Amino acid sequence: MMIKAGQILSFDKELENTRNQSLQELVKRQDIREFVEKNHLTKKALEDAWVDLLAYVDDHEPCLHCHGINECPKMNKGQQITLSYETYVHRDVKSCQYGLEKHENDQLLSRFHYNNMSTRLALISLKDMAAEAMNKKDASMMILTKQLIEYVNRPQTKGFLVCGGPNRTKIMAGMMNELARRGYEVGLCHVPTLMADVKASFNSNEDTSLVDLVKNIPYLLLDSVGEENVTNWSRDEVLAMILDYRILNELPTFMTSAYGFEDLETIYTNKYNDKREQLRAKNIVSKMKALCCEIIID
User: Fold this and answer.
1) Do 145 and 250 share a structural domain?
2) What is the pLDDT of residues 24-64, one digit of tens each?
3) In the chain, how many domains are there?
């Protein structure tokens, strides 16, 4: 079937009208209008860029009420079409603010060589914790955050045992986050979970590799020390092995606990009428003291 020239002309005219109406609507958008004014676009440049402008608007519609990467309905989550102009309108794809944030967080989390706690804890900011302490006029937390920031600025071999207070885990996770931000390799280790995981991996090579992984982390936080199910095995063959290795290799180690050194010695004594048990408990706490200074918070 032959298409007549008149039909083609009619179609072209209809397309032109559709494009002109569409462009009139597009330039009502503030972002499009600002782009046009900034680059002094002519009517011809706008007409040539019509398809690119439509693609830009369609791409940005889902972003108008977006509050995070998890809400993104796009196939390429965290990506947005951007427009630029140099002799003609260019269409590019770049990360949005949430995409950039995810990329930054992914890079940060890659420096956590071990984390059996949570991603949320790993992403806690020490600076935010310091600001929160200041807003609440929490004197003990203000002193502690200042001390931790000073450590991060000048890392040393000896770490801290932070005991007492409801926010000890959160604030120490913030410190590990800050170390990771500065390029250090770190780890978050919830001690009760570690013991359960090592025990569950008996009769395989995983129990050894798990302990090896934890003991070799350059900057390690041991969380909830003394809250595990304390046995001779957990104390002498797992925890003592980790602490010994870190002492010998001068690896900075940090701990949180509901208990101070004195109470931990009691907790790690399994049989109170056994002199050897008392010595072993004293020995494990002496290792902790070799690695950490005690800080008590309210």
Assistant:
1) yes
2) 888 888 988 888 889 988 888 888 888 888 888 888 888 88
3) 2
